[in-house]
Design a protein that fits this description.
Helix content: 40-55%
CATH class of the largest domain: Alpha Beta
Strand content: 15-25%
Radius of gyration: 25 Å
Distance between the termini: 60 Å
CATH topology of the largest domain: Cytidine Deaminase, domain 2
Order of helices and strands: HHHHHHEEHEHEE
Strand order of the largest sheet: 2-1-3-4-5
Shape: elongated
Largest sheet: 5 strands, mixed
Length: 206
């Protein structure tokens, strides 16, 4: 077997069961689909396939099945500030300093991934456009949402927050990666019904 990618089904199966047993399995079941449906008892009926090899074969097919399910599972939609806040509220709740995160989205505004790219001192964090968009490009994101926490609990944007947001919007326009929003996470109080603020909703994206 020269390379795994170019190996035949029987050659791949031989890494689990051995060359002779792999050949017998393919002859007995006639293909991968029938083999994947075989029980442990059915596998062990073949000469040279004991409990360990049978379990390894079943495990390989179960992993492939779970991979397929995971790949086809639709990622969550991140199309409102509420949904973004819901996804990131708990991870940010206990941070004692500011953490800046980038939420990477596909063209349908579904989540690709969330990356924590910077953390700072108590009330500020330094963020560079190259770090933000390096993550977005690596994830092949068509759009991003910026998120950071205010350890003080007050999600009101600072002048620095507004300035960074506008700088990143301009950088995104050059790179054709849209910055959809900047969410600041804080804490809910009796006077403040939401524990977050959206700079888009506040008019800073106009």
């Amino acid at each position: 077997m020269q390379s795994i990618e170019q190996a035949s089904n029987a050659e791949l199966l031989s890494t689990l069961a051995g060359p002779r047993q792999a050949q017998l399995l393919m002859e007995r079941f006639g293909g991968l689909a029938p083999l994947a449906r075989a029980s442990l008892d059915e596998l062990q009926q073949l000469k040279g396939i004991g409990k360990g090899k049978a379990a390894a074969i079943r495990s390989a097919f179960l992993l492939a099945q779970r991979l397929s399910q995971e790949a086809h599972r639709e990622a969550p939609m991140m199309d409102t500030p509420e949904r973004v806040a819901e996804a990131l509220r708990e991870p940010n709740r206990l941070y004692a300093v500011e953490h800046f995160q980038v939420v990477c989205l596909n063209t349908r505004r579904r989540l690709i991934g969330i990356e924590n790219i910077a953390q700072g001192i108590l009330d500020q964090v330094l963020v560079h456009a190259r770090e933000v968009f390096a993550v977005a490009i690596l994830k092949r994101a068509s759009a991003i949402i910026l998120v950071h926490n205010h350890p003080s609990g007050d999600p009101t944007p600072s002048e620095a927050d507004i300035r960074v947001t506008r700088d990143l919007i301009r950088a995104g326009q050059l790179l054709k990666i849209e910055v959809l929003d900047h969410i600041i996470l804080g804490q809910r109080t009796t006077e403040r019904p939401h524990d977050y603020s959206s700079l888009r909703e506040l008019g800073y994206f106009a």
